[in-house]
Each structure stands twice: as C-alpha cells, then as structure tokens.
Design a protein that fits this description.
The structure holds two protein chains of two kinds. Residues 223-229 of chain A have low confidence and may be disordered. Chain A has an eleven-stranded mixed sheet, covered by helices on one side. Chain A has one domain: Glutamate synthase, alpha subunit, C-terminal domain (Pectate Lyase C-like, 3 Solenoid), CATH 2.160.20.60. Chain A has two helices and eleven strands; from the N terminus they run βαβββββββββαβ. By secondary structure, chain A is of the alpha/beta class. The longest helix of chain A has 14 residues, at 187-200. Chain B is of the alpha/beta class. Chain B is 32% helix and 14% strand. Chain B contains 14 helices and 18 strands. An eight-stranded parallel sheet of chain B has the order 5-15-14-12-11-8-7-6. In chain B, helix 2 (105-118) packs parallel to helix 13. The longest helix of chain B is centred in the C-terminal third of the chain and has 25 residues, at 389-413. Chain B is globular, with a radius of gyration of 23 Å. The chains are: A alpha/beta, B alpha/beta.
C-alpha cells in the first residue's frame, strides 16, 4: 500500500488529522510520514485504526493523544501530554518528553527513550510507560492501573496517592509520595519488566529494578475513627 | 444564712449567636470523629438569590403579548463560535452534569428520556458515559474532568458536545468524591478503581495547567472531533469575571458558570458553605466579561446553581444567560426528599428509611451515603428499583414543561416574543445586596449600589 507523506510546512494540521480519522481508517494507506512538524501541537490525535505514523522531528503538546490501535513514532522530542489518554497501540518518542507524558492512559504502550518531565504517568489507568531516562517530580501521581518502567532516576513524590498501578525504577528515587512503598520484586515482576523493556527496545537488566506500589492506607478515610458517614 | 442565686428567666436561657446549637453540634461532632462532615446537595445558608429580583411587567410604557396565544420562542442555540454542529435545543433549560455513580443508571436514563422529549440536553459526569445514557438522550454533553474516569475517545466521538470541567459551584478548587458505599462493581470498573474505595477525584487536570495550555487542550478535542462538536468550559463561581474571560481566551464555544448553590453528591460541608460566590453575583460578572470582550452572543453562557423555577430561568436569561442548567431541582422532580416512592403502581412510605439515615424528608442531604430512600442517589441494587426510568421521566418532563411555561408567561408579560429578548432593564431588585450583585436598580429607585446615583 502507498506510503503517504504530509509536509506540515505546507499542509494544515487539520488536513492531516482529518485524513488520519477518515481516509486512513477506510484503509487508504497503512503508513504516513509527517515532515516538518516543527513543534506543532496535536499531531496525530484521536487515531482509531492500526496505522503507522512517523513524525520526523519535534512534536508539540498531545502528540498521539487518545490513540487507539495506531503506532505513532516521533523521532524528535515531544511536548506536554504525549500519548495522553491512550487506549491501545503505541506511541514511541525517540527523544525527550515534557510534562504529563502518558497522562490517564487506559492502555497501549508509551516509550520515551530520553527523559520525561514532571507528572509522567499521572492518573495512569491501565497503560504501560517505559522511560529510558529519568522522570520528573510527581510522576505516577494517583496512578490507578498499569505499569511504569523507569530506567533512570525519579524526582520527588514518586507514586503519590497511588491506587493499583505498579512502578519499577532502576536508578535513585528522590522521594516517594504519600502512600507509595517499595515492595520486593517477584519473578512475575522481573518477567513483566523484561517484557516491557523488550517491547521498548531498551537493554537493561530487569533484576536491577525496584518495585513501588500502593500501601493502600489512603483507600478509606480515617478508617479507625468509626466515622458515621 | 444561706442565699440562693438570683434567677433571671430569659437571660439564663439566652442562646449565643456565635455558639448557637448548630455550632455546638458541629464542634461536638468534630470532637467525636476527628473528620470533617461530608454531605450532598448545595449551600444551605441564606444567600441573595433570584427571589430577590422581580420583573417590571409591561404596562403603559411597554406592550405585553397575550399570555396563551401569541408566539414566544424558546429555541436555543449553543456552540456557534467554532463548532460545525452547534447544539440546537427547544428550550433554554438543560440538565446539569451529574455522574453515573452519584446517580443510579435508572436515574440517568430518566434524565435522558425526559430531556429528549422536551428537546433539551443532558450531561454526563465524573465517571464516564453509560450506554443507557447515550441511548436515551438525544443530545448528550460529555464531560472531560480532572479525574478522566472512564474518559475515552470513542465516547468523545459519540458525544454531541464536550464540556471541559474546571470546577463546580459547590466546590470550586476541589475534586469530586464518591464514598466507598457507592463504588459498586460497575462503578469501580468504569472508573478503574478498586471496589469500595473512598474515591477522591483530582482537582487539577492531568495534562494542562493554565489557560494557555487549556487553549491547546481544547484544540486537541477539536482536532479529534474534526471541529464538529461545541466545546463548553465549566467553572465554579469565584473570580468569575476573570475566569470567563480566560475561558473565552482558551477557545470555549460555551461557558458554564455554576454558583455556590449548585449541588454535589459528596463534598465537605465547609467547602459547600464557605467557598464560592452566589449564582446571582456570578451571572452579572460572567455577562460583564463577555460584553467586555465583545463576545456576548458569540460565546454562549449557561448558568447553574440554585435554578428552581421558571421565574429563576427568566431572571437568569434577563441578566444575560443563554441557557440554564439544573441539577438539584431535577432530582427533587424525580422524588428527592419526598415522603414516598412509587413502585409497582403504588406509593410506598420512605420515612423510616430517612430516619435510619438520621434525617427526614425535606432535610435530606445524604446523597454521599448511597442509601437514598427514594432510589435516586444510590448504587444499591434494591434501592435503585424505587425509581423506574419511565416514572422518573414523566415527572421530570412535567417539571421542565412547567418551568418553560412559566418562563414564556413572564417573557410575554414583558412583551417579548423570544425568551432570549428578556434583558436586565426588565429587572429590579428587592434588596440592596441583590441590586449590587445583579447590577440592577433597587425597586422604586434608579440606584445600583456601586454605580452612583
């Protein structure tokens, strides 16, 4: 099938996204290359078919946002909210990512080869995130489900108010957030990390990661106080 | 010799203004539990509201329309600024966002059925869109909330408009709450939470932090929906003048302003009663902001928070709103705080169930417990059967019909062929506070406090 190229230096973004929502979904092509993204916001958002989109350069906010089924690859860096609310498929950032990467993702895999900014994986709801570098403070804040693999270090308050998401960190953690705790790595954890690293194409020893999950002490309000709700 | 203390009958039983029985009760409760009170509904305290305004009906200087015969248009268009498919409603009275979770699936279906029959819209809530709701409601507004519970692109595509919720009047600056009793298996699954947890929603959106970011977020939602659907932005009323301006700057098609009388399914009482401004004050500030930007009529304004009657609707419209949204009034129409519920063709007494909650019909604000005696704010398999979608829809349709008739009655009396022609000039205030907040003259004077004589 024909491989199509959209040059954002000459084509409006709206034309690209409309094509991806309609013509691409109808099967007109299985591979789209986006040239000269030049930090444009909202590239390849709301995709709903198993298409491959290569963004050659840097993307602005929300690249690959709310993705379903598609594989979006960004050869440069990505702005705030890359892969936010992804349902399935894959968003792969070869460079760095800004704040809120993978926010509230329900499924799919987000790979960031470089570092990610603040609040990476905030409100995560079932997606997987693999970060080759380090993540900023408040990452995995209120993360509900899904997994995060951090090959570098983490900033302050990692996993604050975690629900059922599980975090794996190789490097140092500046501080854990409220209700987050270290837990022993089981064989299943090691296998999970190995599989996620493999899918991300990153080479690390899965046994060198630490597991962080919720203490579950914030699940109920002041449960000792015999409160009459 | 023994002396007795002198007794003064009235002075010795004087209740303190500052430490009245309610305050004593509050302190004792705090001392006993070490946790703030959480409850449902909106502010209960006395606030300046639409009752403090009256209309100047037509007389010698204005010409009225015949109350029953002459045409009075109620059609309402929302989202005309950027969206290819604006929302077209038959009446300017919409159903406010209330979550499946806070309300039972039956109630959500009732809302959809009644709204569809009346030609108006319903709104999802924190917790996502249910198939029942989408099926029953012809025009469904899909909320994008800080928690993003159940938020997904398929439902974005199924929605008729998207409402980005920054805050709500009952708790501007706070996130939602759903206590464990209501987090049943279905609710838990929709929200990706463990069953039975005391759910606290985030108060900030996860992927943007200010109005400049929001502009990009709104653009994302537009790109995803190919610029078809209107984008609403909902704010709780606080610094309304600035907030409305920033919402317009961010690219909103419609701004929803929710005053402090607006309800909630569960929030700290201190939050409900002490944060935010009354709806009356918020409407004026919102309209001023739109006029200041020359966006009146281009960006539509929906007002909510304590709209109960057709007169309230008419006053909100006269002050400059394009439509209103109703939450608590809708629940009351369905039977909230009623003495009985209607099941299997007969009324059944619910008073004992109110008593179990420590309350009585007329005072109940126990939505947070999930034990609603009339089956509205519950996820309990038995209680939710106390309201059937068809019975609820019938009552709600009657309520909306009544409000609309009252609205057009007032509009005709003011000589308006279209309810959207009602204007501030048609209103005066009964109190100085209301005159100052609403920006209309005190009745019998041309004095608007703060604007000189």
């Amino acid at each position: 099938m024909e491989r199509l190229t959209f040059d954002l230096a000459t084509t409006p973004l709206r034309e690209l996204n409309t094509f991806l929502h309609n013509d691409a979904k109808a099967g007109k092509t299985s591979h789209v290359t986006v040239l000269n993204p030049d930090g444009a916001h909202n590239i390849a958002v709301g995709l709903d078919c198993p298409i491959a989109v290569d963004v050659v350069g840097h993307a602005g906010y929300y690249a690959g946002g709310m993705n379903k089924s598609a594989t979006v690859t960004i050869t440069g860096s990505a702005g705030t909210g890359v892969g936010e609310n992804m349902m399935s498929g894959k968003v792969h950032v070869k460079g760095f990512a800004s704040n809120g990467a993978g926010a509230s993702a329900h499924g799919g895999l987000l790979v960031i080869e470089g570092d990610a900014g603040l609040r990476c994986g905030i409100s995560l709801k079932g997606g997987d995130i693999v970060v080759g570098g380090s993540v900023g403070s408040f990452s995995a804040f209120m993360a509900q489900a899904g997994r995060m693999v951090i090959c570098g270090d983490a900033g302050d308050a990692l996993g604050d108010s975690l629900y059922e998401a599980v975090l794996y960190v190789k490097g140092s953690v500046k501080s854990l957030g409220a209700d987050a705790q270290y837990e022993p790595m089981s064989e299943a954890d090691i296998a999970a990390v190995a599989s996620l690293l493999d899918q991300a194409g990153l080479d690390h020893d899965p046994k060198s990661f630490k597991r962080i999950a919720s203490k579950r002490s914030l699940y109920h309000w002041n449960a000792d106080a015999n409160q009459e709700y | 010799m023994e002396t007795k203390p002198v007794q003064f009958k009235n002075l010795s039983r004087e209740e303190s203004y500052g430490y009245d029985r309610k305050t004593l009760d509050y302190i004792r409760n705090a001392a006993a539990h070490g946790l703030y009170e959480i409850r449902g509904m909106g502010a209960k305290r006395k606030l300046p509201n639409f009752d403090d305004l009256v209309f100047l009906g037509a007389s010698m200087s204005r010409y009225p329309l015949e109350g029953y015969r002459e045409k009075c248009i109620t059609k309402t268009l929302l989202g005309t600024r950027f969206a290819k498919k604006p929302i077209e409603l038959e009446i300017p009275i919409t159903i406010a966002g209330m979550s499946f979770g806070a309300l039972s699936a039956n109630v959500k279906e009732s809302l959809g059925l009644a709204a569809t029959e009346m030609g108006t819209s319903t709104t999802t809530g924190d917790g996502g869109m249910t198939p029942e709701e989408r099926r029953s409601s012809k025009t469904l507004i899909y909320q994008c909330l800080p928690s993003r519970y159940g938020f997904n692109p398929d439902d974005v595509r199924k929605a008729d408009a998207i409402e980005v919720v920054i805050g709500q009047g009952a708790k501007p600056g706070g996130g939602g709450m759903l206590l464990g009793q209501k987090v049943n298996p279905r609710v838990a699954k929709m929200r990706t939470l463990p069953e039975g947890v005391d759910q606290r929603s985030a108060c900030r959106h996860p992927d943007w932090t200010g109005p400049d970011d929001l502009a990009i977020k709104i653009q994302e939602l537009r790109e995803i929906t190919d610029w078809e659907k209107p984008i609403y932005v909902k704010v709780g009323a606080t610094r309304t003048f600035n907030d409305v301006k920033l919402a317009v700057h961010s690219g909103a098609d419609v701004v929803v302003v929710d005053g402090m009388q607006g309800g909630t399914a569960a929030t700290q009482t201190c939050f409900i009663e002490h944060v935010g401004i009354p709806t009356l004050a918020a409407v004026r500030q919102a309209v001023n902001a739109l006029e200041d930007l020359d966006m009146k009529g281009k960006v539509q304004l929906i007002v909510s928070g304590g709209i109960r009657t057709g007169a309230d609707v008419a006053k909100a419209l006269a002050m400059g709103a394009d439509a209103v949204a109703i939450g608590q009034g809708v629940l009351v129409a369905l039977g909230c705080n009623g003495e009985t519920y209607f099941q299997n063709g007969a009324h059944h007494d619910a008073i004992a169930d109110y008593n179990t909650l420590g309350t009585a019909p007329g005072f109940c604000h126990h939505c947070h417990t999930g034990k609603c005696p009339v089956g509205i704010t519950t996820q309990d398999a038995i209680l939710e059967q106390r309201l059937s979608p068809a019975v609820g829809a019938k009552h709600l349709k009657n309520y909306l019909k009544t409000l609309n008739m009252e609205l057009t009655t007032i509009a005709r009396a003011c000589g308006k062929q279209n309810v959207h022609h009602l204007e501030p000039e048609d209103l005066v205030a009964l109190t100085i506070e209301a005159a100052a907040m609403a920006g209309v003259p005190l009745a019998g004077t041309n004095w608007i406090p703060g604007r000189g004589f």
